[in-house]
Amino acid sequence: MATDKLLQVELVAADRLVWSGQATMVIARTTEGDVGILPDHSPLLSMVIEGVVDVQTAEGETWVAAVDAGFLSVADNRVSILSERAEMSHEIDLEKARQDLERAKASGEQDDAAQEAVRRAEARVRAVERAS
Amino acid sequence: MALSVREYRARIKSTESMKKITRAMELIAASRIIKAQQRAQAAAPYANELTRAVSALATFSNVDHALTTEPVDPKRAAVLIVTSDRGLAGAYSSNVLKEAERLIEKLKEEGKDVDVYMSGRKGEAYFKFRQRPVVRTWSGFSDQPTYDKAAEMGEVLINAFIADEADGESQDVSPVDEVHVVYTRFRSMLSQEPVAVRMLPLEVVEGTEPPAADDLLPLYEFEPSAEEVLDSLLPRYVVSRVFFALLQSAASELAARQKAMKSATDNADELIKKYTRIANQARQAGITQEISEIVGGVNALADANAGRD
Q: Per the omega criterion (within 30 degrees of 0), is the bond before B224 cis?
């Protein structure tokens, strides 16, 4: 990456600031599909769906977080991801996440809430698997 | 002498054990209040970002949304009152309720019917005792509210607000034209004040001060579209405001409880001192009486003996 510009990233859950720092790239899943955000991205306000957020930090590390539906806003190299719930992959208990997923799938309900629960559980499992 | 020494001793004992309890509650409240403040601070980034996003939207698109339009002729208002679950917090709950009564009175004068929504057992009991109807109550979390609870409350209120446009008195929602919230604002450890704010229809505040020329909001692209982003942004904004009210109230409740328990402990100290004095006095009086009885007896004996000699 030629630019020395960095993104100032904030991942914010409703009750706490999950992560903030500098990054070279952010990947998130929006209603329109996955978006990758690099420095100098044009201002964007988009809706994020339950899924995984990848961030490559300025130190060259990558971390993954599972987020709920929320928002992504980009402006002036500032990226904020707002979600009611967000967890970093190392905060997730994989066993428990798998069980939650099983349970969510097994309930077999077809309404929106149940499907949302399945998507949320999947995102958490995926976040851990991707990180390891 | 009104009471015997033994009775005073018993009073001192019970006051001492009460003091232990109030002292413990004071300390617990003091430690929780720090946590409550931290939670309020931790929730601030989310609220700030949300406000930014909403004002960005308000600036660049015509905000014309069900949640922001003023009803032409408001007939019915909902009032959400945030009180505590437990007492022993001084005038905390009654202050909120007083403020709420004032608001309800004002709304009624404006010719609106009032639906009451209640959070916290104290307020629930207040309305139940007066046999006044409450549409919906929530309780069990007043000193550590979670976002999920705020989401639930926000959803109910939004549904009630939106419902009027749909089909009037349907199912279990009672439609309203505006939503107010009464909660206690935490200003400092020493001062908390009950406030009433109108939540819906939303007035989008574009920051308290106008942005400086070089600080203009960027020209955002909206995905999928401004309307859809608005659709999902505004309810969250409302929920985040409810959450804010809950967090502020929780911190206020703990501060009020700490203050109340501190003065209860001080009063207990005072009482113990007073009772100890009275008890000592009573004991002294008892001793004096005994001595004078003995002396009187001895004298009587001596007189009798002298008479016999």
A: yes
The alpha-carbon gap from B266 to the nearest alpha carbon of chain A, in Å, equals 36
CA angle A12, A13, A19 (to 5 degrees): 40
**Which among B56, B236, B240 has the least Cβ separation from residue A45?**
B56
A contacts of B54 (beta carbons < 8 Å): none
Question: What structural domains and CATH numbers belong to chain A?
Answer: 7-88 (2.60.15.10), 93-131 (no CATH)
User: Hey, what CATH topology would domain B60-206+218-257 get?
Assistant: Pyruvate Kinase; Chain: A, domain 1 (3.40.1380)
Task: Write out chain B residues lying below 8 Å of A75, CB-based.
Answer: 217-218, 220
Q: Which of B212, B199, B289 is nearest to B244 (CA)?
A: B199
**Quick one: which of B75, B67, B122, B71 has its CA closest to B100?**
B122
Collapsing DSSP to helix, strand or coil, A47 comes out as strand
Checking if the pLDDT of A3 tops 70, the result is: no
Closest CA to A32 of B57, B226, B225: B225
Interface contact B222-A45, CB threshold 8 A: yes
- Report the Cα B277 to chain-centroid distance in Å: 39
Low pLDDT (below 50) residues in chain B: 1, 206-214
Q: What is the pTM of this model?
A: 0.81
Closest CA of chain A from B39, distance in Å: 7
- pLDDT at residue B213 in the model: 45
Residue with the larger pLDDT of the pair A111 and A74? A74
Burial (Cβ within 10 Å: 0-12, 13-18, ≥19) of residue B210: exposed
What residues in B contact A42, CB-CB < 8 Å? 221
